[in-house]
């Protein structure tokens, strides 16, 4: 073995595939009984509908290197993601666009009129100087729209004072003064034609790659454990960085998700793939209906699969999904980064390993640069 990769999500598999193609022998271990991390998907047995087991994953990128790379393993459908929001008994298009604004204010504003209105409603806040989620949110869409679509959704999603959250989270969503309600701005977008798992399996399908599932890096009873391996062979670790150091600097806070999946005996439950529920009266943040991710497929006409999504703080035994990233977390992270620098031939990557809110294309892009800039010389 020339390299051990801990974790078989997109970051780990990209590293493994690159190293294997460069002639290195790679072992990938994963604690779970399937590859792919949270991008894993599977057919729901009763309907055959592809379900993203860890929540909806939408691929999009403007990075040409990443786009060229991912197309080696899968083709993509022409799916374009759109999200709607169910507020106060009415359904609005998201992200906030001229359609949302005009529907909300029951008006027919032109783009310039709408901009002037939002500027007035943003009050004292300015996008350039906004310090946190709340200030940036209000600066971007004004207080009434923020309160309708963001305040209570964010309370459910993060359970954290929006003044403690980063403004970067809110700027994940564009605001548009046109009727364009595509969720993403990127040049390339689509879903893997034959599903996420087929894509992930093709990345791992190389004679130099061995994948061992149900194998925990921290389990001393299996041979590829941390104490036995570190220092003897280069390691790329994509698990939670605080777990690696046995929480020596304290726990980083994460949000985890719970899902309630249901097969409903109707052909179409909500008419779209994702409906957000920003109002506090609903305990879930959104409902996914998976058939709408693949309108090109021949799915049953009388059944559909929906999944309600609930968010809460993760304890050590839960799957971490979203880094909360409060100022305290950021200080802890700096201390973990210093510890990580001191590890002998161990590189940390991915959403969990770097405690960053990475989308799939970002994880793949950062794995490609880690391979080219840091890892090649260690191998
Ligand atoms: N958000 C919100 N209302 C919505 C959608 C998003 O308040 O209807 C906020 C929320 O805080 C969320 C953030 O915007 O965490 C980013 O949204 P995105 O859809 O990118 O989140 P993801 O799909 O990654 O969970």
Would you give an account of this structure?
31% of the residues lie in helices and 18% in strands. The protein is globular. It is an alpha/beta fold and 379 residues long. The chain folds into three domains: 3-80 and 189-253 and 318-375, NAD(P)-binding Rossmann-like Domain (Rossmann fold); 83-170, no CATH class; 254-313, no CATH class. 40% of the residues are buried. The chain starts with a strand and ends with a helix. The strands form four sheets. It has a seven-stranded mixed sheet. The protein has 13 helices and 16 strands. The structure holds uridine-5'-diphosphate. Uridine-5'-diphosphate (UDP) binds at residues 85, 94, 149-150, 153-154, 157, 169-170, 172-173, 276, 278.
What is the strand and helix layout of this fold?
Blueprint lengths: L2 E4 L3 H12 L4 E4 L11 E3 L6 E3 L6 E3 L2 H7 L12 E5 L2 E5 L3 H7 L6 H11 L11 H9 L1 H16 L8 H4 L17 E3 L5 H9 L4 E4 L13 H4 L5 E3 L3 H4 L9 E11 L9 E3 L9 E4 L14 E10 L8 E2 L3 H15 L4 E3 L1 H5 L5 H16 L4
Parallel strand pairs: 1-2, 1-10, 2-9, 6-12, 10-16
Antiparallel strand pairs: 3-4, 5-8, 6-7, 11-14, 11-15, 12-13, 13-14
The protein binds uridine-5'-diphosphate.
The site of uridine-5'-diphosphate has 13 residues, from helix 6 and helix 7.
Short description:
Its cofactor is FAD. Keywords: FAD, Flavoprotein, Isomerase. Helices cover 31% and strands 18% of the residues.
* CATH fold name of the largest domain: Rossmann fold
For the record, the count of structural domains works out to 3
The gross shape turns out to be globular
Secondary-structure content class: alpha/beta
The H/E string reads EHEEEEHEEHHHHHEHEHEHEEEEEHEHH
- The helix content is 25-40%
Instruction: Count all strands and give the number.
Output: 16
């Amino acid at each position: 073995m020339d390299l051990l990769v801990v974790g078989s999500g997109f970051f780990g598999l990209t590293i493994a595939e690159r190293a294997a193609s460069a002639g290195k022998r790679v072992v990938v271990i994963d604690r779970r009984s399937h590859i792919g991390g949270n991008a894993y998907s599977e057919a729901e047995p009763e309907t055959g509908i592809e379900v993203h087991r860890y929540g909806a994953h939408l691929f999009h990128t403007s990075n040409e290197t990443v786009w060229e790379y991912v197309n080696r393993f899968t083709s993509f459908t022409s799916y374009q993601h759109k999200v709607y929001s169910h507020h106060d008994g009415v359904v609005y298009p998201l992200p906030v666009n001229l359609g949302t604004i005009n529907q909300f204010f029951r008006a027919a504003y032109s783009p310039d009129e709408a901009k002037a209105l939002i500027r007035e409603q943003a009050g004292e806040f300015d996008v350039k100087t906004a310090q946190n989620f709340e200030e940036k949110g209000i600066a971007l869409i004004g207080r009434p729209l923020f309160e309708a679509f963001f305040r209570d959704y964010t309370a459910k999603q993060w359970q954290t004072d929006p003044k403690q959250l980063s403004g970067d989270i809110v700027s994940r969503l564009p605001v548009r003064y046109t009727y364009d309600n595509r969720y993403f701005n990127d040049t390339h977008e689509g879903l893997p034609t034959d599903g996420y798992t087929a894509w992930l399996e093709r990345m791992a399908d190389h004679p130099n790659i061995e994948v061992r599932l149900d194998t925990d890096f921290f389990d001393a009873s299996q041979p590829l454990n941390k104490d036995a391996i570190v220092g003897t062979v280069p390691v790329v670790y994509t698990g939670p960085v605080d777990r690696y150091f046995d929480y020596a600097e304290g726990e980083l806070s994460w949000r985890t998700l719970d899902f309630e999946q249901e097969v409903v005996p109707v052909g179409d439950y909500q008419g779209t793939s994702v409906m957000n529920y920003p109002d506090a009266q609903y305990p879930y943040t959104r409902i996914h209906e998976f058939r709408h991710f693949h309108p090109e497929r021949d799915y049953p006409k009388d059944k559909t699969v929906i999944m309600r999504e609930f968010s809460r703080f993760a304890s050590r035994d839960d799957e971490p999904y979203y880094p909360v990233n409060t100022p305290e977390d950021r200080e802890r992270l700096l201390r973990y980064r210093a510890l990580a620098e001191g590890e002998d031939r161990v590189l940390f990557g991915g959403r969990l390993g770097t405690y960053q809110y990475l989308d799939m294309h970002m994880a793949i892009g950062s794995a490609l640069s880690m391979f080219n800039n840091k890892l090649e010389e260690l191998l």
